[in-house]
Design goal:
Blueprint: H1 2-9, E1 32-38, H2 52-61, E2 67-73, E3 80-81, H3 96-108, E4 116-122, H4 142-157, E5 161-166, H5 174-192, H6 198-207, E6 218-221, H7 227-238, H8 244-269, E7 278-283, E8 289-293, E9 297-298, E10 304-305, E11 309-312, E12 320-325, H9 343-346, H10 353-366, H11 369-384, H12 387-394, H13 406-418, H14 420-427, E13 430-435, E14 442-445, E15 450-453, E16 456-464, E17 471-479, H15 486-489, H16 492-499, E18 505-507
Parallel strand pairs: 1-2, 1-4, 4-5, 5-6, 7-18
Antiparallel strand pairs: 2-3, 7-17, 8-11, 8-12, 9-10, 12-13, 13-14, 15-16, 16-17
């Protein structure tokens, strides 16, 4: 009964050009599995306890679903299609090229896009008939020549090829043992591309699975193993690939390595600071603030850290000192000769800038006619003065003001009261920096400038008159040395995640 059922499944395929044969039946669900079975006398039985034909029938029957086709081959005149009764292992030759050439003819008879898998059972001993190769180069090794032609044909076909090596390689002669592994690997690499690379084959074999990208293409079955090993092998080849092997590789190798790498990277970048982080220094006027770099200290959050800036009480322990100073400009007119100054103008000298501006605005809006004229005249004369002249007059030392016309000082002061730009330049707090060590220096520090403190580079982001004291200084980390430059390479959001911090800002404490 089994031969009859198999004969129905294995209908004759199309012939090579010039031969007549019926077209193959439409493929059922699943792939077309085309078995190419070495029918030469050197191939051992598929199973030591079964008749050859029955063993072949059972092996092909392991394929569930899809379409099963069979090519028995020896030499070019020893090729038959879908005839299990011809399996007698009495072929005189072993010519892989003509077997795959016949398979190509079968493949071309199926509609484009049909999933086809080639399964080769052989002992991998190449023994071509010289009569089949009249065009072979004179003096060339015929076996090597047919191997090259076979590899070219497989590369042209581009179909998945699985090879089942039947036999014990230790029983082959020295020449066959050297030839078989290299030839088989060369065939599967030509047919399957990079997925048949040696490393991919090793991983697939080690994990015992066929994946989407990593597949096992070469199997070996000893003569004493027979159908017991052939059955799972054939079922595995015919089954649909799954991502199991890739999942195992990811779970066994990639994921642990990623976790280890992530842990090592996190160890090197977890600590504050990183590029772009901010250190905020609270400053009071005329109160020097001493800071040190990389000294163990406790943050306001209560944790102990040893990186970045911290406050110290003595300049001898400091890497740098910040001092916030008020501008040294006398706006009360000290040193002026006011004897010839109008009393109304003289009354403006003791006023602060806000009081001076309000006095002029009140006189302009609701003052008497004389007060309006005087205020408008002063406003006009003050705005007519250039900012450079106003700055030169107001910043003249007290001892040199005796010969300065007092009315010019009043007009310059009025210009200053009405100009926010000049006020920012003359009256903004002055930040002075002193650094210590071999490259120590003293200088005034302005927003946008850079400074080096210890091993860190900073850019002055801003100085604002707010905070717990008189002003708040924000220093942005511009240069942060770290192992392998990880602090510079890794994105800031990644570093913050490893530090479990949402903010890039820390108050120096």
């Amino acid at each position: 009964m089994l031969p009859v059922l198999l004969a129905l499944a294995l209908q004759a395929g199309p012939a090579l050009p010039g031969e007549g044969a019926p077209s193959p039946p439409p493929a059922s669900e699943g792939p077309v599995v085309l078995f190419l079975v070495d029918n030469s006398a050197s191939l051992p039985p598929l199973d030591p306890n079964e008749d050859r034909v029955k063993a072949l029938e059972k092996m092909i029957g392991f394929v569930e679903g899809g379409t099963r086709r069979l090519i028995l081959f020896g030499g070019s005149r020893e090729v038959s299609v879908d005839d299990v009764r011809g399996y007698s292992s009495d072929g005189q030759w072993t010519d892989f090229y003509h077997a795959f050439l016949r398979a190509q003819g079968l493949v071309l008879s199926y509609p484009p896009g049909t999933e086809i898998r080639l399964v080769l059972l052989t002992d991998a001993i190449v023994d071509p008939d010289p009569a089949d190769w009249p065009d072979a180069p004179s003096g060339a090794d015929l076996a090597s020549h047919t191997i090259r032609r076979t590899v070219e044909l497989l590369r042209e076909m581009g179909l998945p090829l699985y090879v089942i090596l039947v036999g014990d390689p230790t029983n082959q002669d020295a020449g066959d043992r050297e030839q078989s592994p290299g030839f088989v690997l060369e065939m599967v690499r030509a047919a399957n591309g990079v997925s048949a690379a040696p490393l991919a084959q090793t991983l697939a074999s080690f994990l015992g699975d066929d994946g989407l990208l990593l597949r096992k293409f070469i199997y070996r079955v000893r003569p004493d193993e027979g159908l017991e090993v052939l059955e799972p092998t054939v079922r595995r080849i015919a089954s649909a690939p799954s991502p199991g092997v890739e999942a195992r590789i990811f779970g066994y190798f990639v994921l642990p390595l990623l976790l280890i790498l992530l842990g090592l990277v996190g160890l090197f970048v977890h600590s504050f600071p990183g590029p772009g982080d901010l250190e905020v220094v609270e400053l009071g006027f005329e109160q020097p603030v001493h800071v040190a770099a990389d000294r163990l200290h406790r943050t306001r959050e209560g944790s102990l850290v040893a990186q970045g800036l911290s406050l110290v009480s003595d300049a001898r322990e400091a890497s740098a000192t910040f001092t916030l100073r008020r501008p040294e400009i006398d706006l009360a007119g000290t040193g002026l000769d006011t004897s010839g100054l109008d009393a109304n103008d003289a009354a403006l000298l003791p006023l602060d800038l806000e009081g001076l501006r309000q006095t002029i605005e009140t006189a302009t809006d609701s003052g008497t006619r004389e007060e309006k004229i005087r205020a408008l005249n002063l406003d006009y004369m003050a705005k007519s003065m250039s900012a450079a002249d106003a700055e030169r007059i107001l910043t003249r030392p007290t001892a040199e003001r005796a010969h300065l016309p007092a009315i010019d000082f009043v007009r310059a002061k009025t210009h200053l009261a009405l100009s926010d730009t000049l006020q920012e330049r003359l009256l903004a707090p002055r930040l002075h920096l002193a650094t210590y060590g071999r490259d120590g220096a003293r200088r005034e520090l302005k927003p946008g400038e850079t400074v080096r403190i210890g091993r860190y580079g900073f850019a002055v982001q801003d100085l604002t008159l707010e905070g717990r004291k008189d002003a708040r200084l924000a220093l942005r980390y511009d240069r942060v040395p770290s192992l392998l430059g990880l602090k510079t390479i890794l994105p800031g959001y990644f570093q913050r995640a490893l530090r479990f911090r949402r903010s890039r800002q820390r108050a120096v404490s």
